[in-house]
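Backbone-to-sequence.
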């Protein structure tokens, strides 16, 4: 079974290496057309993986489908496993759309140049995969040991749904976020962006990335006044910290939701991974149409109500 996990992780890392190292090696502004094309690629990959799930569980490859699902107590054959994977993928994809609005607010607050937004999202997604893997492993262990915890998950999802339906949410100030304040406490932050770098050292040659050719280097009072060698974070790093923090908060909703569908760790993790991989492209595809999604909150709230009700039943 360990080889199956290692093989899937190697496959995902290869996809990410191709994404950043080949297709997006040079920083550039992602157009809506490009984003739609990449969204189609990631969605196609996520759906195509259903074929592997079907044959792997139907044939019992590397022990898949040999253990009863902790949620329904049944052994999943190929068709059942494919259904659970696709359902989890759609639920996670739907819930991740809400995350896009928060990312847009973060980029707006930190004035992240469009040229570097893809880089922030790439490393944000990579960190999200690691964090979600740990949370899924913990959730699967808890459900296997304490089946009654599903009822707590259900109650949490229903409460979250009512909160989304009836409570007004103001626009939070990312600058007042406790995590950002903690980072600022331990690390000095530059006054401006230094290209696509997340950190710079005082005394190092000034980065000219993203600046007009022939223009003098832009001043940075914080860096210029510091002792040579002092490590500074850039505002790009703060935006990355906020993106990571946001994903953890949203994972608290989405991971219990998928455990209503299946407790199989492989199905939970793979459906989450493919849904998250396409989040960057989906952001750039929808960034200019945020105002059109007036009914997103109530729609997602209804999804959580249905999932929470299913868990209770």
């Amino acid at each position: 079974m360990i080889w199956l996990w290692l093989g899937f992780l190697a496959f995902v890392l290869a996809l990410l290496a191709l994404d950043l190292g080949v297709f997006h090696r040079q920083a550039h502004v992602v157009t809506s057309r490009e984003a739609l094309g990449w969204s189609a690629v990631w969605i196609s990959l996520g759906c195509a993986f259903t074929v592997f799930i079907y044959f792997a569980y139907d044939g019992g490859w590397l022990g898949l489908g040999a253990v009863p699902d902790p949620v329904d107590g049944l052994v999943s054959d190929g068709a059942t496993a494919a259904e659970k994977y696709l359902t989890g993928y759609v639920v996670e994809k739907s819930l991740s759309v809400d995350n896009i609005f928060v990312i847009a607010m973060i980029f707006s607050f930190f004035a992240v140049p469009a040229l570097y937004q893809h880089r922030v999202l790439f490393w944000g997604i990579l960190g999200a995969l690691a964090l979600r893997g740990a949370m899924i492993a913990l959730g699967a262990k808890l459900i296997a040991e304490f089946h009654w915890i599903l009822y707590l998950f259900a109650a949490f999802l229903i409460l979250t749904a009512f909160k989304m339906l009836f409570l007004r949410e103001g626009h939070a100030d990312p600058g007042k976020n406790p995590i950002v304040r903690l980072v600022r406490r331990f690390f000095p932050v530059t006054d401006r962006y230094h290209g696509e770098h997340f950190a710079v050292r005082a005394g190092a040659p000034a980065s000219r990335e993203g600046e007009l050719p022939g223009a003098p280097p832009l001043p940075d009072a914080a860096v210029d006044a510091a002792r040579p060698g002092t490590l500074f974070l850039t505002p790009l790093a703060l935006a990355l910290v906020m993106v990571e923090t946001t994903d953890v908060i949203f994972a608290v909703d989405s991971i219990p939701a998928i455990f209503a569908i299946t407790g199989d760790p492989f199905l939970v993790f793979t459906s989450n991974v493919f849904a998250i991989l396409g989040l960057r492209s989906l952001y750039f595809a929808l960034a200019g149409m945020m105002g059109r999604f007036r009914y997103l909150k109530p729609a997602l709230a209804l999804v959580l109500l249905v999932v929470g009700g299913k868990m209770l039943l």
